[in-house]
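Justification of computing resources. Each target in the renewal requires a structure prediction run like the one illustrated here; the chain below, 130 residues long, is used simply to show the kind of job we budget for.
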Amino acid sequence: MGFWEDYKIIEKAALIDEETFSTSPLVITDTVNATKRLLNEVLMKIKSYYGISTDDMHGMIFFLMKNKMINPELIGQLIDVIEFVNNIEGEKPEIIHSWLIRVMEILEEVYFSLSENKENTINKSTIGNI
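Resulting structure tokens:
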């Protein structure tokens, strides 16, 4: 699945009420898996665009900050989302449900920031060759 397919799965889960979400094991499982894949899509984008390891979260975050690849205000939120998603299996359904909108918003913003920065980098290198 791709970024937007997983995003839609999470979005649907976020729109149902907490009680329905919490009592539906299939919805919980699908949502947890989609959330992990969504984060993985963002991490793979970082790795493919910038050739850096995403295994070292702090090193990756430092690289993104140092090179102004994402908004500095987003850094702390991204760290929170990464830590949440990495530990999502042990969370109660109510907690998972309460985080869904935040996860979607932060990862979407990072996703677009990376795309925009990659495009700007390509445009600058193209202009420099003219």
